[in-house]
């Protein structure tokens, strides 16, 4: 069986690397013949630092589906079309918005250095922080520190564009991807089929991968995601690891 894991808030907490208890449980899954896949809002560049080195070659979906990687190579990226990119940049300029913008590998950032999202961006200096003006293709945009009435105004403007927008809990950020890009679209590029995998997630951007999963395990509580979850677990690493080990015990009936 294939197991697909969101990272932040699901098996990775407070931006820290996977804990030893989670790593051991994932290793036990692979030892029993299961495949482990990661699917995150992070670009591939920022997935790697929270994973142990021996998992860097695992299949990955990054940027909520905009990046797909396998065997340490990015095999697919989807960028904003030029006219859409220009309209997004106009919105950013008109409202003087702070942002994290990713190209295929490098990034542009104008948020504060102590913003929680900043510590997760390229901590191992694998990429370059570049001016937005010198960036060619844009794969993903995160708008930061949007407050009050401006939040709804920006949402309204984005709704007129062919893009996918995710909001994460009560954070004052908007996560923007090209149209028809989501985690399920990325998983399909890795060859996954409908109802062929177990999904673990915790937020609205996990919705499509839950809809197509054989079994879906929601970590914590999320109203919208809960409608598609077959199970729920507290955001407790020991309990999550316990559930993974229980899957291992069911190995004979779950293996292909």
From TrEMBL:
A GO cellular component entry from the record: cytosol
Entry annotated with the keyword Transmembrane helix: no
Stored SUPFAM superfamilies: HAD-like
Molecular function GO labels: magnesium ion binding; phosphatase activity
Keywords tagged on the record: Hydrolase
InterPro entries listed in its UniProt record: HAD-like_sf, HAD-SF_hydro_IIB, HAD_sf
UniProt-listed Pfam families: Hydrolase_3
This protein's name: HAD-IIB family hydrolase
């Amino acid at each position: 069986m294939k197991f697909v894991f969101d990272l932040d808030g699901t098996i990775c907490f407070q931006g820290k690397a996977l804990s030893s208890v989670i790593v051991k449980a994932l290793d036990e899954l692979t030892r029993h013949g299961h495949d482990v896949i990661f699917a995150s809002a992070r670009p591939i560049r920022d997935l790697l630092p929270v994973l142990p080195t021996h998992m860097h070659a695992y299949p990955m979906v990054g940027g909520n589906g905009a990046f797909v990687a396998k065997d340490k190579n990015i095999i697919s990226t989807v960028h904003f079309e030029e006219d859409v990119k220009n309209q997004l940049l106009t919105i950013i300029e008109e409202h003087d918005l702070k942002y994290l913008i990713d190209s295929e590998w490098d990034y542009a950032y104008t948020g504060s250095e102590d913003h929680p999202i900043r510590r997760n961006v390229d901590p191992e200096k694998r990429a370059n922080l570049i001016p937005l003006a010198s960036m060619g293709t844009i794969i993903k945009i995160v708008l930061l520190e949007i407050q009050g009435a401006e939040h709804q105004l920006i949402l309204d403007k984005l709704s007129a564009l062919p893009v996918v927008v995710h909001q994460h809990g009560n954070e004052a950020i908007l996560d923007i991807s090209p149209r028809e890009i989501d985690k399920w679209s990325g998983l399909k590029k890795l060859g996954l089929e409908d109802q062929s995998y177990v999904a673990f997630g915790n937020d609205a951007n996990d919705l499509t991968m839950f809809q197509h999963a054989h079994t879906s395990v929601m970590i914590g509580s999320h109203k919208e995601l809960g409608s598609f979850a077959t199970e729920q677990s507290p955001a407790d690493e020991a309990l999550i690891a316990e559930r993974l080990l229980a899957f291992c015990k069911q190995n004979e009936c779950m293996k292909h």
